[in-house]
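Incident log, structure service

09:12 report received: a user says their structure output differs between two submissions of the same chain.
09:20 pulled the input from the user's history:
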Amino acid sequence: MERIEVNPNVLSGKPVIRGTRIPVSLILNLLANGYEVADVLRAYPELTEEDVRAAIALGAKLADYEEVELAPSDETVAG
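09:34 re-ran on a clean worker, output below:
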């Protein structure tokens, strides 16, 4: 995780790509909304593929430990 930085003086301590003000959450949201890694790199040329992979890895790591309450799906409500 050497590519990720958490600093209370940068974006209120949100995880960012080290040396930038680009939050990990922005990268994950772009990918979740259909961007390919190459699209992210074109939009943010200061990033590397390794930066994007580190953001994905952090998201995966956090998903393993965070309890997330999801709204019930229509199938759950109907069933």
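09:41 both user submissions now match this output. Likely a transient worker issue. Closing.
09:42 reviewer note: The longest strand covers residues 4-5. The helical segments are 24-32, 37-43, 49-65, 74-78.
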